[in-house]
Prior knowledge:
Blueprint lengths: L5 H13 L11 H5 L18 E4 L4 H15 L3 E4 L36 H13 L3 E6 L3 E4 L31 E2 L17 H6 L5 E4 L4 H16 L4 E4 L7 H9 L12 E4 L20 E3 L1 H11 L21 E3 L19 H12 L4 E6 L34 H13 L6 E7 L2 E6 L3 E6 L5 E6 L5 E4 L6 E2 L2 E2 L3 E4 L3 E6 L3 E6 L30 E9 L6 E7 L13 E2 L1 E4 L2 E9 L3 E10 L4 E3 L5 E4 L5 E7 L10 E8 L7 E6 L13 E2 L1 E4 L2 E8 L4 E9 L5 E3 L5 E4 L5 E7 L2
Parallel strand pairs: 1-2, 1-11, 2-3, 3-7, 7-8, 8-9, 9-10, 10-11, 22-30, 31-39
Antiparallel strand pairs: 4-6, 5-6, 12-13, 13-14, 14-21, 15-20, 16-19, 17-18, 22-26, 23-24, 23-27, 25-26, 27-28, 27-29, 31-35, 32-33, 32-36, 34-35, 36-37, 36-38
Amino acid sequence: MPSLRSPLAGRVGRALLAAAVVVSGATAAVAAATNATSTPARAAAALNDSEVTANLWEWNWTSVSAACTDHLGPAGYGAVQVAPPQESVSLPNSIDGVHPWYEVYQPVSYKLESRFGSRAQFAGMVTACHNAGVRVYVDAVVNHMAGANNPEEVVGYAGTDFSGPGYSFPAVPYGTGDFHRPGDNCPTSGGINDWNNEAQVTSCELLALTDLYTEKDSVRTKIAGFLNDMIGLGVDGFRVDAVKHIKKDDFAAILGKLNNTVAENKRPYVAQEIFDGASNDALKARAFTGNGDVLDFAYAKGLRSAFQGSISTLANLPSWNLDAPSANVFAMVTNHDLERDGVVLSYKNGTDYTLANYFALAYPHGKPSVYDSFSWNGRNQSPPANGSGYVTDTACGAAWTCLTQSTGVKGMVGWANAARSVKTVSDFTAVNSNVIGFHRGDRAWFGVNDSGSATTATFTTGLADGQYCDVVSGPATAAGCAGTTVTVSGGRATVAIPANNAVAIHVNARPGGATPSPTATASPTATASPTAGPTDKVATTFTVNATPAAGQDVYVVGSIPALGTWAPADAVRLTAQGGNTYRAVVDLPRSTAVEYKFLKKTAAGAVTWESGANRTFTTPASGSYAVTETFRGDTVPGGQIATSFHATVTTSYGQNVYVVGNIVALGGWSPANAVALSSADYPLWRATLNLPPNTAVEYKYLKKNSDGTVTWESGGNRTFTTPATGTRTNTDTWR
């Protein structure tokens, strides 16, 4: 939903106010939904190691399931974002047409019964996506309920009755005391008159939608119950609507009530919608990063300007006045609000839109997303639906846009995954105003031609010499390249970039060599061994925290001869260091891309691979190198001590707090491996870890800025010894 801009707020506001038409029905407490019996969805396969999200907005659950299984999982997407799943108003005869898209942003209850399908279909969708390796992020509407101007005869999709004018939603239940009301706890007559006034923006009604009184713990608990219900079904995170209209402390308190995710046992991912345009710093997106990532509207608008002007200006992107630092951003080319306003690119812009999405997947800004929804002619048009408003199955083509399933975008998802470890751009080259190229370290190179004529130019790629497959035109196959082959010689390549198209190559897409499986199967993905390597070596230390069974030893194996060329029989054995820590030092060739995994093996040769995708790094040109990891797939060993770290720390925008210490579970004093603390109860930062019993521990807190720089707290190392049994809590204040 739009959540700031006065001009657009007026236009959309009139639409929403007038759209409040029909709905009657049955009631059911939110507790019934929260406590409904349903087997939690667990990931049957490891989830893809990717930051890329496919935003399938207003697709029904059956269609999302099919997309995860057939396209998103195999292509390596890390997540799918889906539309609001709660019961909303049903508007069959509004002045904006039949069942306008925005009705799903007017909740009636927290039942998972919507125009996209039933609760069972929603749960089945989550399971199907997890089985394909894809996380599920839900568009969560928690700032408000349905519009106060809806007539009393209006009901929800599950038949639930409510009263917008009476501030009554008995199916939750919410009553008049659960809302900010005009002339009471809202300082205006109801609406927001000053979009830079924080009190009005957080306590008055957005577009006449009944605004929840989130200062009250009883309201927070009901909202958290709704979100926890979905987490229990396997949901991995949330795109949260209209967060600007909730006080930061209130939203932090809601997040503090959420459970860990089922599939990965970690905090749910949060991307907050903070609509741009405010001059008040307290209402700008970067002010909200303490509670999670934020959507970057300025980035999307900047991409439109470049791709409809000169893409050579993208060289200046680091100096753009973006909404928040890259580390705190959920990046996009468009979304359902923006595409209808003409302020960003949309599918209607043809190749400009496609190329901008390629670029967003290639450029290291935030966590990239690709948006697919239905075709539209009017701004309030319904998605394709039956006569009752229920959205019909997606059929890619005229009625639905399916860029996420295109060969080029799927190839660029693999490109983004291959380049993920390198957060900088090198050798940005502007051949002319509309042909550019750059690379991400030694991982990947990308070139784009936003003009009507093919262009051939020579680029520095950062890649080792050899042949690579252009993943925009087709994937790498065992027989070669399905599309164009690019040859790198002396680190450079002469590339012909077709008109209005792009070329992209990366280390994992080589002709005749298998590309690592994006679905992250348990065993490693073999890649071709280097034909030649440097003669001098880098001493590389492998450290892993693992719990082998009786008779098992721990090994590391990888893509190069020094690591056994993926043969378990030739894997390198790690030596036990005590406390479930295993280590080995291996001489590896310098400046070499390495893929590896850990495994457990018995004397008889029985092998247990760790789960997940291949681990990767590139050895430096000189010096030494070290990796410190935890064996993926291990259960927490018995006897471990649940140890909580509670630190009161005041931070600046974009900063996060970590704990680091002398044992592997605390990163072995390496800031890169420090443990992130949750800011849900800011300024209290928290985390709970399993540490070995009867162990002397030294630790300190540190702050990391969005650019990776680190600030250590002052004073000596903090110390304690874990008990033999039970738990331990450390309560500290930043020094």
